[in-house]
Specification:
alpha/beta; about 110 residues; 6 strands; three-stranded parallel β-sheet
Length: about 110
């Protein structure tokens, strides 16, 4: 796969792609942040596509690796955000050394 830009256009595998993304917060009524099944993850992708979206911004949660596989198989683009929580503190850019260490350790696991 290739992703590139030509002027103000985004190209995926050399073809222009207009991004129509939905915000997916990954909440499930039966498990909060844990999907109850592979079928439910697949259904979320199918529903978004049926509504005309071609991808999702995965918001403030590390999604299950299987979700990425299912999205790839369905041709559904995903952009994942790393959770940036600092214990509810209002000065989010003034973080402790300990907090930065935790984030670095978690990020290594998330990327693998």
């Amino acid at each position: 796969r290739t992703v590139s830009c030509c002027g103000d256009q985004i190209l995926l595998n050399g073809e222009q792609r207009y991004l129509r993304l939905v915000l997916d917060q990954g909440y499930y009524p039966d498990g909060l942040w844990t999907p109850p099944s592979e079928a439910q993850m697949r259904r979320d992708i199918e529903l978004a596509k049926e509504m005309g979206f071609n991808g999702a911004r995965l918001h403030q949660k590390i999604f299950e690796p299987l979700f990425f596989t299912l999205a790839d198989e369905a041709g559904f683009l995903v952009f994942a955000e790393y959770p940036d929580w600092n214990g509810g503190l209002c000065r989010r850019w003034q973080t402790s050394h300990e907090y930065r260490r935790i984030v670095q350790d978690e990020w290594k696991v998330a990327v693998e």
